[in-house]
Amino acid sequence: MSNRQEQPLLNDWFQKHGITEVECLVSDLTGILKGKIMPAGKYLKGGRPRLPDSIFIQTVTGGYPDDEDIRFWNPAERDMELVPDPSAIYLVPWAEDPTAQIIHDCFYLTGEPVELAPRYVLKRVLDLYAARGWTPVVAPEVEFYLVKTNTDSDYPLEPPIGRTGRQESSRQSFSIDAVNEFDPLFEEMYDYCDAMNLDLDTLIHEEGAGQMEVNFQHGDPLALADQVVMFKRTLRETALRHGMYATFMAKPMAGEPGSSMHIHQSLLDSKEGHNVFADEDGQPSRLFHAFIGGQQRYLPSVMPLLAPNVNSYRRLMRTETSGSAPINVEWGMDNRTVGLRVPVSTPEATRVENRLAGADANPYLVMAASLACGYLGMLGRLEPRPPMVGSAWSGGNKLPDDIGPALDMLHDCQPLADILGERFVNSYLAVKRAEHRAYFQVISSWEREHLLLRV
Ligand SMILES: NC(=O)CC[C@H](N)C(=O)O
């Protein structure tokens, strides 16, 4: 556990920004930020804030798994101490009083890290890389929809009204004017992101009505996962201020494409700093191929972390409106029909883009899961299948088609549990099964429409 070496840094930062209030944040399994709000003086002087470790066994609806399912988990609701990470401290740019939002790591009072925490799961995977002298570099791309505010969950979502007073009614991919329909919102989003040092690269209009994508600059996976978490929070807040919702649901509207969280991945030699995915002659290296081999072998088993909700699998179903959402783990050069796309690049930028994750996934867990699969491939020197040339759609869906089978596959994959942590995987499975049960108790409008008078 840290010895409060972060204290002088926090003091300086608080002083510089005149901070009066602190939001202590921890991402739960879903990616919901849990924590405590405290006066700055108390935070700096007092003991560290505490939370029960049950926040990591809570479903998205606030429920808990059945006792039978949590037998692997210690149900004592032990206290955790929250330790701030000074590299993850941000202003709350929309707050009236100067407020800090700080991402925290969780430790038991005995000093051990809490293995259930998504941020810890990613750190664990990064430590494995570090022990081999490898530094993974990632660049996330996150899609989202702006939608009209909607307070009745029985009604489908609708695109919002832009500056012209109209809703989008046709495909507007890459249209600058269609982004500018929401100019005041995006101006404010950029101001907030600047104030928080979130390193956005580009903003584009995607295929769906009111669907956009932001790309982040590449860098350290932990820092980027923090940034994605903070970005989601910031955008949701900005949209609300402009009378809309921003949603990261994987498939918010039946007739529109889903939203993804693509992750570009490359690997540096930690000492020399060069990209080990390229050989000296600039060609893709054996490590690169083994990384892809690992992704092909293990990604189907880690789908619950990349596609964590029933809704996530609606995005991955091939329909007229599924756009370029992947349905397999084939790889290919400059090919958007495969799950693993290798963009044409210079040797230093040799990378593979994992296109499987939905925007609804927890970024810590997406990065941990994806890097874990690549790591297993490199360790086992796995060979990938030959690259796919042309369209990969015709091969059918090669991924689990629902959260239930996906959870069974994760349950059966011991190598992944060894890397991500047995206790984490068991808890995650229990929480997701409880969510699935809760979902199943809801009778849908489809059932009322088609079964009511027919069966
Ligand atoms: N930018 C794209 O390639 C579109 C991705 C697509 N929206 C998906 O859900 O995967």
Can you describe this structure in just a few lines?
The protein is an alpha+beta fold. It has 14 helices and 13 strands.
Given the structure, what is the number of helices? 14
Give the helix/strand class.
Answer: alpha+beta
CATH architecture of the largest domain: 2-Layer Sandwich
Provide the β-strand percentage band: 15-25%
H-E order? HEEHEEEHEHHEEHEEHHHEEEHHHHH
In round numbers, the mean pLDDT is: 95
Ligand roster: glutamine
Low-confidence stretches: none
**Class of the largest domain, according to the CATH hierarchy?**
Alpha Beta
Residue share in helix = 25-40%
Number of strands: 13
Looking at the structure, what is the overall shape?
Answer: globular
Q: End-to-end span in angstroms?
A: 61 Å
Instruction: State the major sheet.
Output: 8 strands, mixed
In CATH, the topology of the largest domain is named Creatine Kinase, Chain A, domain 2
Integer tally of domains: 2
CATH homologous superfamily grouping of the largest domain: Glutamine synthetase/guanido kinase, catalytic domain
Instruction: Please give the radius of gyration in angstroms.
Output: 22 Å
